[in-house]
Design brief:
The chain is of the alpha+beta class and 474 residues long. The protein contains 16 helices and 13 strands. Helix content is 47%, strand content 9%. It is a peripheral membrane protein.
Amino acid sequence: MAVLFTRAKVWNQRPSMDLPPGPTPLPIIGNILQLDIKDIAKSLSILAKDYGPVFTVHFGMKPTVVLCGYEAVKEALIDRAEEFSGRGSYPVIDHIFQGLGMIVFWGNVLGLISCKNPNSHFCLGKNNELIFRHVEFVVMMACLGRSPCDPTFLLSCVPCNVIVSVIFRNRFDYGDEKFHSLIHYFHENFRLVSTPWIQLYNFFPSLHYFPGSHNELFKNIANQKKFIMEKVKEHQESLDINNPQDFIDYFLIKMEKEKHNKQSDFTMDNLIITIWDLFSAGTETTSTTMKYGLLLLLKHPEVSAKVQEEIERVIGRDRSPCMQDRSRMPYTDAVLHEIQRYINLLPINLPHTVTQDVKFREYIFPKGTEIMVSLTSLLYDEKEFPNPQKFDPGHFLDESGNFKKSDHFMAFSAGKRVCVGEGLARMELFLILTSILQHFTLKPLIDPKDIDTTPSTIGLGSIPPSYELCFIPV
């Protein structure tokens, strides 16, 4: 034990010659005593006041450079995007993905599915009509349910079935029990990875051998992977190489073409994990943003009323919303941005690494140095967003009521590892919100002033509290 203690002490001290200063780490446990595992993002904001926008924190025995504030984040992720484009270690996710998939591995699979490349086989940013077919279902179901309801499932249907249509060709029936289970797993997984236990697990991966919520997470994902494997087998049996129909077909064809290439990204394991990535990222983040958004509108009915006024003026009642409407609806656009800013869905970006030795300001980051970016420091910057703790669409409006962009708005991250589904998410959020408010007024079950919008859990994500509402036809 004494040897371990000594080695840990030496190991913890060694990087300090090159990396920025930060709180003094203790052997083995690092800076865990200076960090609140119930809200690490808040702890990092407090440390930034003492150590500046660039400092080092030890997560257990692992030193990580933390970047806070627009200037530092822009310099790293945008100005020097290639150097900071490596994917860092996130132990609970590493155990799941094992170096595969889109979250961990930024390989050639992105050529098949992209929002940025219109020539890719499945440009997610082009699925306006596909999205709206599923939005119509949400509106129809809300019409049928006049009694109070939890909107979680309704708001998950659109993003999940859009991804299903791209990956599996055919959408799920909304009464399908497997569909309900799949959505439940995604919500539960996002909650689990945001719990304090998982934050502790990421400090000390050896906790893998102990009981804890990580085992529930691994079990959920194993069940999801089993379901995905069944779908892949169905595609293998029906595959027509001359007429591919969806993402899986294209991937299987690429697998066959590259079966003799040992370095190929197109493997069965990578296919399973990539599908899981697309499902998880494409379903959970959008549906949680929208769920949190409706809660904020319940809390602020005056905002909801102004969006409805703009919908009436620009779209009316005789046609459905479309993406072309967004440029003529600055207030609605500002509300969507303010929802994403305020909820701060991913307070801390998944860790990056530097791909080579880097001189950053007066410091040297050796190749492989882990980088953690505080998105909270951008979205809650008091100079850019006065009174950031207040939900205020005016943060994105100029004096004339026109939409005002902000470089600090990096809710989808930035640089080489910006969210691949950004374009799709923006479309879904706009079409879901405008379609709901075109047809309904949102009615809370309690007085708006008594609604608590505080996250129930803050970890990898900010999880909204549970609530019910009524959809009242307009």
